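Lecture 7 notes: from sequence to structure.
We start with the chain below.
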Amino acid sequence: MVNAFNEERINQIVWRQYPEFQGVRPMVQHANINSSSASASQSASIRSENKHTILLYQAYVRLPNGKSMSRWVRVSLKQDGSIAKISSSK
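Predicted structure tokens for the same chain:
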């Protein structure tokens, strides 16, 4: 779960790693991710459903030719609010 304190802490981490996103507030999404350590032949009852929160940051950056490009940073959070993964796109 993302509370205001946790979101601000994550914002600081994103802004430090990606300065062009300074001041950008994320869109919050919740996703159910089915995970399984079982093989396909084992029972589906072993599978567990995890709820993850995803924070999406979007910014537009200027390119040397004068055009702008959309950039995204995606932060996947575990159920306890800690960061599972940070990825960016160009």
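Points to note: The first helix runs from residue 4 to 17. Residues 4-33+48-89 form one domain.
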